[in-house]
Structures are given as structure tokens and as C-alpha cells.
Amino acid sequence: MLKAQTQMSLSKYSELYDVLVPEDNELRQINELIDFEFVYEELKDKYSATMGRGAVDPIMMFKYLLLKAMYPTSDVGLVKRAFTDMSYKYFLGLNPEDPVIESSTLTKFRRNRLKDTDILDLLIGKTVSIAKEHGLLKSKTIIVDSTHSNARYNQKSPLQALQKLSKILRKNVYKIDKSMKDKLPNKPSNGLLESEMAYTKKLCNILRKDERLMFYGHVREGVDYLDEVIDDHMYELSLSKDEDAKVGHKNADTHFFGYKTHIAMSDERIITAATVTSGEKHDGKELEALVKKSRDAGIEVEEVIADAAYSESNNIELANTDDNFKLYSRLSRTVSEGPKRKIEGFFYNKDAGMYVCPKGHMGIRKVVNGKKKHKEEGKTMVETYFFDIERCKICPLKGTCYKEGADSKTYSVSIKSNIHKKHMEFQETDEFKLKVKARYKIEAKNAELKNAHAFGQADAHGILGMNLQAATTIFVVNIKRIMKLMK
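Request: output the structure for the sequence above.
Response:
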């Protein structure tokens, strides 16, 4: 049963907040800036109005998630700090002497209350409306890019994931006290997940009872993290690895396993839209959605600044016809492959300068067919990309993408210069060259997300968890930017 949040009840200790949480405190300022009543409206259908015990206030639960995005830690670590940190308690609407939630309550809130909600669009839209109310959004330009996040559960079995986490924890303990090698339980050798889980629980229990070792923050956090994996996520791990995550390529030599968050940001450095996809998705395919979401949030989009990944023919046509905005994106020769393609799913990775197949494998070399004068005359050139045939032989798409028995696997792209002649002329203008210099702003925003808010690592399983992480992190980053602009 849902109960609306009331104002903080009077307490003889409430005056502590006037001393310990000054007016310039970041959390106090956020409380004063934002009316969190919108959380009730969004989640009212997730609760019963008449049945069951009174639920923990959803605004308080939502604020716990914001705190985790602002100060990345485990659920257990977050709740422990909330018990002793007066600024946390003030932000949560608690009295100094009030108890805090159990960490498992936060996990249930994420799974049960936020499932099937458009939380990403909701929170971004809320921050955009706040910025507009204060007259902070004046530009009609958005800058778009993507940033990647590694999956919490990489390409490892549940057994391997647990073994790696416990190994890191043991190493940290041995650096403090080598004698602990004789006190910890023996590692299982039968290769059974159940045995590894039992061992891990025993390991955590022994370390948790040692107050001397638990004094060290990195050991305590390691134990809390392992407990969280076992208690809150092992049922997902026991099913499979993170099936929503996929391999993406940062360049020709490096790759990652996880997700991409595609971001649109105003010239004032406020994020106006975002989408979350698996790691192998092509950046350019998300441009239309980012423009639409930005406009739905109330932004007038007349200009879009992006890198070469967004200069594919469909986006140029979208900018010049349907959506009527200027696209400041340098043209890549290989984006104009034409509408007819033998096999869907191949896309160009602009960082690596190679095509990637539908299963995420990158080409190993390319050959250009056609004479130099053909390019100058605007005639068709063809680029042929070669793939590792040994991978193709064991690929699930064998028979459709790769024909069994073939000596090679190639993918050819027609480069029609005339189609993009107008855009090629546009990118040589002084106006274009000046505008694209603003791309550094979104690179800095991506760095802020990763370095200050641990966005480089997914903190939950699956794309729904990544959506929630993106939503709360972007909400926090936008609010911090708004407060900075207001000053």
C-alpha cells in the first residue's frame, strides 16, 4: 500500500541539520530545487491503494538510487553510510535518529517498482523542464555521441565470475595479513557452482567477523559486493551470463563487452535525450531517436553536431527533408552504401575504419576496387572487406552469411560520391568547421559520467538495469549542471 510522503516529523534532534547540513550543501540544494512529487505520479500504478502493509516511501527509495549514482558504492555500503551521514538523512527526509532501510529493500524496489517504466525519458525530461523553467536552455543545438559501459557480468560462467571476485578479495586480505592464508577455508576444486557459492559465503562470514580487517574500506567493500552478488543477483547469474550485453569495438585493436548509452546534449551541456543499446549497435542508427526525444522534452533542434559515425545517407536525408535540421557531421566515404544490401546487420565502425558483421566480428582487411579518376568523376567505387574465415566456419550465421566451403568471406560497399557531393561541399565551409569544434563538450560529459559516477561499469544485470543506471546517473549529472549554471 502506497502512502504519500509527509513532511519530516518534529524531533528534538532536528536542529542538528542546521549545523551539519549547511545551505551550500549539495544535497540540501537538490532538495530545495526539485519537487519529487512526480515520483508518486509515475509509480502509483505499481502499488495497491488499499491492500498490504504501508510501503517504504517511493520518494525515499528513489533518493537512495540518486545517492548511489552520486557517490558510487554497493547497496550495503550506501545504506551503512546513510545511517551515519546527516546530509544523507536530511536528503532522504529522515530525522537524525531514524533507522534506514535494509539493503535488500533497494534491490526489490529496482526490480518490482521500476520495471516497465520509461524511467530514462522521465528523468531526463524532468531535468530539462527544470532547466527551461530557470531560463538555462537557450541554444537550438544538440551534440550527439555514445559512451560504452562494461557489463557487470562479463563473458564468464557464474562459477568463473565468483572465483574472480573471491580471488580479488583474498589478495587484498593477504596484503594486510599474510597469516590469513591459514585461516580461510579451502577453495573447492570440484567445479560445481553450488560448492563455489558455499565457499564464498563462508569466506565472507569469516572476514566479516574480523573487525581488524573490516576496518579497511576496500576489504569491507569487497565483502559487501560479494554478498550482494550472491544474495541479489545469483539467480540471474545461475541462468546465464549477461545475455543483453554484446561485444562492441572501440577501435581496430580493442573491444568491450557491455552496452552503449547514446546521448544528446545541449550546447549548455545539459543532456536532453538518451537511448541504451547493447554494445555492438551502430551509433548512427540512434540519431533519429535522439532528435525526436530531445524535441519531445521541449528542445528546439535546429542543429546537430556529431562525429563521422552519424553521417550515413539516411541521417543526411533525415536532416535535409523530414526533420529540417543542419547536420554537422564529417562525411565518411563508406556510409553511402546504397539501399540494396545482400545481408542486413553489417555496419561501419568509424574508429577502426572497418565493417563489423552481424555477430560483432570485425573485418581484418579491405581492398578498394576502381580507378582514382572514377572517384574524381563521381563514378562508383567499391570497397571490399575481408573477414576471418575461421570464425565464419563456426559462426551461428553459417549458411546465411557465410556459405560453407567458400574460400573467403567478404562484404562489398559501393561508394557513390555524387550522392554526398552537397554535404562534402558543406563540410568545407567555415561555418561547418567552426561548429564541429564544439564536439569536445560531449567528450568531456562522457568523461564526467565515467570518472565521477562510475558509468564505465554496469552495476546491474541486463539492459533494464543499464537503463535505470543511465536514468539516475544522467538525472544527477544534469541537476549538478543546472545548479552550477544557476550560480
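Residues 235-240, 335-342, 374-379 have pLDDT under 50 and may be disordered.
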